[in-house]
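Dear Dr. L.,

I hope this message finds you well. Following up on our conversation about the binding site, I have prepared a predicted three-dimensional model of the protein together with molybdenum atom. For your records, I am including the exact sequence and ligand specification that went into the calculation, followed by the structure tokens. Please feel free to forward this to your student if that is useful.
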Amino acid sequence: MSYVNQPDGIFPSVCSLDCPDQCGLLVHKKDGKIVKVEGDPNHPVTQGNICNKVRHMAERIYDSKRLQYPMKRVGAKGEGKFERITWEEAIATIASHWKELIASEGPESILPYSFYGNMGILSAEGMDRRFFHRLGASRLNRAICNAAGSQGYKYTMGDSFGTDPEDTVHTKLFIFWGVNAVSTNMHQIALAQKARKNGAKVIVIDVHKNQTGRFADWFIPILPGTDAALALGMMHILFAENMTDAAFLEQYTVGHKELQEHVKQYDPHTVSAITGVPVEDLYRLARMYVETSPSLIRIGNGLQHHDNGGMTVRTISCLPALTGQWLVKGGGAIKGNSGFLATNTTAVQRPDLLENKKTRVINMNLLGNALLELDPPVRSLYVYNCNPAIVAPEANKVRQGLSRENLFTVVHDLFLTETALYADLVLPATSAFENTDLYTSYWHHYIQIQNPIIERCGESKSNMEIFCLLAQAMGFDNEAFVDTEEAIIRQALDNPDNPYIKDITYEALAEKQYVKANRTVIFPETLSTPSGKIELYSQLMEDDGYAPLPAYIPLPKESELPFLFVPGPNHNFLNSTFSNNEKHTQMEKEPRLHMNSADASQAGIEDGDVVHIWNERGACELKVSVGENVLPGVLVSQGLWADLPGTKYTVNALTPDRIADMGEGAVFFSGRVDLKKVHEVSFR
Ligand SMILES: Nc1nc2c(c(=O)[nH]1)N[C@H]1C(S)=C(S)[C@@H](COP(=O)(O)OP(=O)(O)OC[C@H]3O[C@@H](n4cnc5c(=O)[nH]c(N)nc54)[C@H](O)[C@@H]3O)O[C@H]1N2
Ligand SMILES: Nc1nc2c(c(=O)[nH]1)N[C@H]1C(S)=C(S)[C@@H](COP(=O)(O)OP(=O)(O)OC[C@H]3O[C@@H](n4cnc5c(=O)[nH]c(N)nc54)[C@H](O)[C@@H]3O)O[C@H]1N2
Ligand code: SF4
Ligand SMILES: [Mo]
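The resulting structure of the complex is given below.
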């Protein structure tokens, strides 16, 4: 189905961005152009509310900077000089380079690099995966986002299953833990607001009193990377005061006796010294948690962008078992819910096309190293759905790698991103409103199809189209490369391993638009942990080389520099998306560095000063906000800003490319920095 030929009207759609809410949208068209994007009031969860970013999506779609046609580089790498070419030339150039590389150095010299700039299954993990499997290219471990926390959660809970957000209207206590939900999960906040009308309380535990902290009834500031200690301290009190749900522990968990012994060492004084949370607050938190039902912990991504992130999430996710909250409607925890909507990835991605070749796997968090040091080297990089020059850690290394003369780089995007500036070939991408795709949320339980609404921009093509063309040019004649969008959507929905989506068919989606998985609770199903129960003690972890019981592992002190630097995302961008759109940068104004007033006065820095922030990896410059929103010794910034002329906003110049304790995840928030006032500001 397509709405492209209807110049006027209101058309159903879905947000394609990497955001848990995955809103239902209504797109208004006049004379063939989008004039308004609003929330669809009929979406059962998002109910007509959407964020400001997407309300202004048309400004991005029709931004005059949109790429219109393929281009080849005519200047130096990074300089941004390009010349128009045809699609035939673009595809033929890529195919001939790759054929040569395959013959001379083997297919693993080619590296695809992508993330979820478009969350659609066809756009993010469909024909692209088939193509690179068949090619035998190096594989990418896409561990930049939630890898550490997801593995940590799995050790405790088996898979990505948590509380149904729709049940949280009944919740009486929300603990938003390391999640900036006002900006990053606004409908969970809307649900909390509703619950508040019935007396629910909201606690926020964060290193930064940001918009979410301000929304809380009680904000608990904590030192970065110490959350596992706080959770263990809560467990200590729950066991010591006999407040655990013994029947639940007995029936649904493994290892509660060992845990009870183990947490004796995490007495409130010890925990307070580690976390910065006063002893009386720790008691109050533990008692509120056990005395209020239903209680929900929303476990965020911020917690796990640390060296100890996997174990932190593993530890926090044990808490609802101690109180038996998993059996209460609206109780439990939400880390992610993608398990409920699992589609048939084998059919969609076709790993069989690899023919059992054990091709090497490269971690996307180590892109700088991969480009500069790997042997045998990466000779060609194909980037789509991602902007690594801004979002990957160790940005200076990444850019040095991208500058290599003997690296053939192709970037497919809607815009000439910072990464695209280093490309040999730039290919224009369609926006999600120009494509067909299938969307599954990782927070709520609904699936939705996107039908094309507008004409494609210039000569732009979707990810799927390009990989079909490349397959043809490479001479891949497998039937996998001629499947239509509809065919792949049907394959995705037909997942024998997930009976809970068996009623979600292509036809049902066409008719009803939003269809919910046929399962909303975790129990009484058996969990996919080895024991089938919640594993407070995990033999599997021990076998994998971890402590089998939840633990607090202090962050490694990477240097003697005085501040921990936590550069998170912001309200009006989606990672680096929108950072190049005027409307959104205007709404966001400018990036700020939040600093405690005691630190500021010691360093002679005043509110509004511009500072040069540095460490051994690089530097950036931001304006300081002085106050009490962060604890002493902590600096927080928000936003992955574009390289706007005259600015030095790239926070990832400072972030480490170490790998977290689990899932090979990223550790954006565990780096140390120092700063000094910039006396001569040459810009602003
Ligand atoms: N508006 C907007 N929405 C987004 C995004 C965006 O860029 N903008 N990005 C999307 C993506 S890809 C993701 S993964 C999610 C991320 O969204 P969230 O899950 O909210 O994760 P972050 O914003 O990275 O971090 C959440 C909070 O963790 C805090 N934090 C950092 N370290 C610690 C710590 O050690 N302990 C505690 N308790 N808190 C800590 C930060 O101060 C921050 O407030 O949001 C998605 N939605
Ligand atoms: N310092 C710091 N760094 C971080 C984070 C942090 O909190 N702090 N968060 C990390 C996290 S959680 C994540 S998920 C990553 C996200 O990092 P990225 O995945 O790189 O996300 P974006 O910056 O939004 O870039 C997505 C790009 O995809 C393009 N795009 C959109 N749709 C399509 C399409 O259909 N086809 C093609 N070819 N391109 C398309 C967009 O135009 C955009 O340039 O960033 C990580 N980086
Ligand atoms: S970015 Fe998130 S909140 Fe905004 S419209 Fe998309 S799914 Fe909804
Ligand atoms: Mo993410």
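In brief: The chain has four domains: 9-61, 71-145+347-428+453-483, 149-338+528-543, 563-677.

With kind regards,
A. P.
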